[in-house]
Amino acid sequence: MSYATVFRDETRLDINYTPPKLQHRNSQLRLLNEYFRHAIETPGKMTQRVIITGSVGTGKTVLTQRFGRDITREAEQRHINLHYIHVNCRQNKGSFFLILQQMVAHFHPGFPRRGYSAEELLQTLMQILDDQNIYLIATLDELASLIQNEGSEPMYKLSRIEETRTKKSRRLSLICVLREPSWLSKLDASTRSTLQNNIIQLDSYTKDQLEDILNDRIKLAFKEGTVPFETVMLAAELGDEEAGNARYSIELLWRAGKYADAEGDKEVAPEHIRKAAGSVYSSIRKDEISTLDYHKKLFLLGIARRFQQTRSAHITTGEAEESYRIACEEFNAKPRGHTQLWKYMKELAVLGVIKAEPSPSNRVGKTTLIGLPRIAAVDLEKELNNTLKHTKRGHV
Ligand SMILES: Nc1ncnc2c1ncn2[C@@H]1O[C@H](COP(=O)(O)OP(=O)(O)OP(=O)(O)O)[C@@H](O)[C@H]1O
Ligand SMILES: [Mg+2]
Prior knowledge:
With 396 residues, this protein is α/β, with parallel strands linked by helices. It contains 17 helices and eight strands.
């Protein structure tokens, strides 16, 4: 008996897959093209800065990647040497240095990894662009991570670099992607004002829009007739409840397909979606967890374990720290101090993995309470154990 599956090509459901067609983002794509029209019509005359905002799973990444492919193709036809680079700031640990290194490596894969400052890397990048007559559009995705880590300095340098290069062609344009536009307030006034003029806001998808997105994706990923209408409806409905998050709906479908296969069903039923919803942790992404620093992972592991020992909705920071220290022992790591853990807690709360709130004042000794609103502690622990196994310890 041959192995039966509902999938035609499940890679089309992967988070890194860019679909050929974007549903319900035409006007935003057109606007983006409009902002960069000069890049193909009069290259070198000016550069552009655009900000894209929208909540989780509203298509910020996919929109910019689609745009990048389209515009480089058009430039090629016009014999313009235009490159597009997509950099994820969070995956580069919010480090300006690593971000610039990725950009330089796009042109010179063998460029030495050490011995340069961020400043020098930026100069090197501009030099490469000048020497090879290249125009560059760089997307800084998940920019909050860079701002959180290094403040306003990097954006200041990036937005000023062209101004110090009088008489030369304008070469570096930026697209900044942020979930929360409020991060912009952390930048200094002049940087903010050079950035703020062109903002494209992506609204959360409605249930109907999610349905269209899913139907397109189903044609690419599933065999014909394996995903009935009611299943699509339910996946869209759940995505809608998750604040219009398309990623959530797509991941539900993928998992539901896996359940159908495992059970030998020829169709993906609503029941499979319900099962998937029980196991997908919404709004938290595996890669968000896998790119955390080693000690942040250990801290989170402590938290996940603690939550499995309690029926209460919250744990205290003291309990979290204690659990963390036990985890450190197990992994042979030297525990970080209280202040550092406090920072981890704040950062994990910003990511949305945990919730941190002041305890009600009737409790003795004011403390912060940690909540785990979105993910089963058991799943979180499993995920962390997996990634900790694969992470080599850095500087412990
Ligand atoms: N308009 C669309 N048409 C087709 N697929 C889409 C559309 N919008 C989003 N998607 C798909 O939904 C998923 C989430 O989109 P994307 O990763 O771009 O969201 P995001 O806004 O960058 O989210 P985050 O803030 O978490 O980074 C991806 O798989 C993407 O391909
Ligand atoms: Mg994204």
